Amino acid sequence: MHLPALPVLLPFFAAILILYPWFNKRLHLQRLVAQFGLLMLVAVSMLTLFKTLADGPMGYAMGDWEAPFGIYLLADPLAAFMLVVTSVLALCTHLFACGGEDKTGRFFHPLFMFQLMGLNGAFLTADAFNLFVFFEILLIASYSLLIHGGGRERTRAAQHYVLYNLIGSAFFLIALALLYRAFGTLNIPDMASRAPTLPEESVPLAQAGGLLLMVVFGVKAALLPLHFWLPRTYSTTSVPVAALFAVMTKVGVYSLWRIHSVVFGHDSGELSDLGVVPLAWLSGLTVLAGAIGALASQTLRWLIANLIVISVGTLLMTVAMGTTQSVAAGLYYTLHSTLMSGAFFLVAGLILMQRGQAEDRFVRSRPFLYPVFTGVLFAVTAMAMIGLPPFSGFLGKVFILQAAVDSGDAIWVWPLVLISGLAALIALSRAGTTLFWRTQGSVVPEAKEKVSNVHLVASGLLVATTLVLVIGGGPLTEWSLRAAQDLHAGVTLNYLNGGQP
Amino acid sequence: MELIFAVTVGVMVTCSVFLMLRGHTFAVVIGLTLMSYAVNLFLFASGGLALHEPAILADGAEYSDPLPQALVLTAIVIGFAMTAFALILAIRARADLGNDQVDGRALPGDSLANKEPQGKIRQSSVSSTAKNTGGKSR
């Protein structure tokens, strides 16, 4: 009954608990509480997913205020999928951080939990202004996590990231004001039901608001002209934080699904398919920019950041296609790319801890302490990211290609997806050969202290999720199709209030 | 009324955009503050402007929309916190990078920058970050 509120409340209370002074000097207890909270979060997210798949979307009126006055949480299969993938990613990255990265600054654990609270809230909310509020929660937590550990390069990256996102937030508010003026409501299902019959004088306002909102989500998702913050931010921050941030770009894509494919979808009268053509162009160019960036990368983390740009571009192409199949394919690809980008950052963390001064730069260096384990993880993640069989990236890309055939967009989607795959293949083979085979001398002596078993277990676990995605590929694709259908069918205010759809 | 309101918001946004395009973080932060004021006013106007009407519900009278007021209140609080964070970060960057430029590179003749030449900015490393924060971590 209160299930949809739990993914927001659980990390919130865990964070508050850890903030108590008694926990201040007891780092192992902070870790324990956070890990326990994350395990609970995984369980709650799974439960939400299965319940929404069985019984349909669940609405939750906060404070029991009925729509259209109250704020609603809406747990549908799409949101539940995002909850599951976020909590699994968070569990593994947090475990990795417990290997020692959480000691390089204070308040890592509370910030991590607040970050999750913001993410989960953004996935669950059914109110556009509430989405803004949760965006700000996840952003302010991410600002602090970003500079966790300190250092000049990190401060510089954080400054760009913070100022840029503050401007983005101002645009978000302007867009919301325009939309409120046009629709008279900010409840997303209510907006969707009013969109087809919007009075003529409100249409330009709604169009301006919708397009401005697309710019804001483009900033979060790293759409082409707005993506320059991403590589530096992701490659300079600490490894577990970068791995968690793999889900941050997906929040932008998710919000586009949540608002643009519902409120400005195919049958919204004058507002139908708002901004789809520029989005298609820009998403294609994003993929190309990511591919060029990947080929030009000098360090592994910079390369992974560019691979994230490619995957975001690919996802935005599915948003631009706008069919049910494309959203389903995009959802499966989101699951894959979030988990694999996160896993890749953890593997990069293992690599840079073992290479001493050379870190993750593509230069000749000393051999690895655990060459086989690191090598296998690197190979599996790289193959998954490129989209080679038998791993999850291959399945994800095949679904996207199929969806492109069905929606008649094959002519521009196929070349882009395949070319970006080739670029990733070239870049990663070059990276792999340099990192693993161009070695000389003896093992770095301090690698033994730096790489703990926790690091190995955490990165191994996250990499292994690609196998789950492949083995469970059948049910997962069926469920993502269900999620896409539920998203496009939408819910009514009446349904949110407990009535019939 | 509408004209004055629109011109006010427009002028504030113009000034804030000018300030945000400056190189010094201090000017950028002031620009952001001005921008958030303008945005708050804009958000306030989304409920429609009315003169001499009761602020809350009254019998028979036209009343102003209460929701934008609630939205503005939330936006003010959030904007306040974010500006404070941006300011602190700017001070930290001034200390870490040795100058007040947004991209961390001092221009020749910058009176706000440290006098001694700065070392080249390198990719941050695990070892150097551990060193940098050794004093602050506990």
TrEMBL record, chain A:
| Domain NADH:quinone oxidoreductase/Mrp antiporter transmembrane intervals | 127-414
Which keywords appear in this protein's UniProt record, sorted alphabetically?
Answer: Cell membrane, Membrane, Transmembrane, Transmembrane helix
For the keyword Cell membrane, the answer is yes
Principal localization reads membrane
Signal peptide as annotated in the record: none
Q: What family is reported?
A: Belongs to the CPA3 antiporters (TC 2.A.63) subunit D family.
Name the PANTHER family for this protein: NA(+)_H(+) ANTIPORTER SUBUNIT D1, NADH DEHYDROGENASE
Protein name stated in the entry: Multisubunit potassium/proton antiporter, PhaD subunit
Q: What taxonomic lineage is listed for the species of origin?
A: Bacteria, Pseudomonadati, Pseudomonadota, Gammaproteobacteria, Oceanospirillales
Automatic annotation (TrEMBL), chain B:
- Location of this chain's protein in the cell: Cell membrane
Residue ranges under compositional bias (Polar residues)? 121-138
Q: Which residues form a coiled coil?
A: none
Cited Gene3D superfamilies: 1.10.287.3510
Q: Which Pfam families would you find in this protein's record? A: Oxidored_q2 (PF00420)
This protein's source sits in the domain of life called Bacteria
An example of a Gene Ontology cellular component annotation for this protein is:
plasma membrane
Chief location of this protein? Answer: membrane
Lipid bilayer topology:
Multi-pass membrane protein
Q: Which residues cross the membrane?
A: 6-21, 28-50, 70-91
> Which of UniProt's keywords are assigned here?
Cell membrane, Membrane, Transmembrane, Transmembrane helix
User: Where do the record's region annotations for Disordered lie?
Assistant: 107-138
- PANTHER family for the chain: ANTIPORTER SUBUNIT MNHC2-RELATED
Which family is annotated?
Belongs to the CPA3 antiporters (TC 2.A.63) subunit C family.
State the name under which the record lists this protein.
Answer: Multisubunit potassium/proton antiporter, PhaC subunit
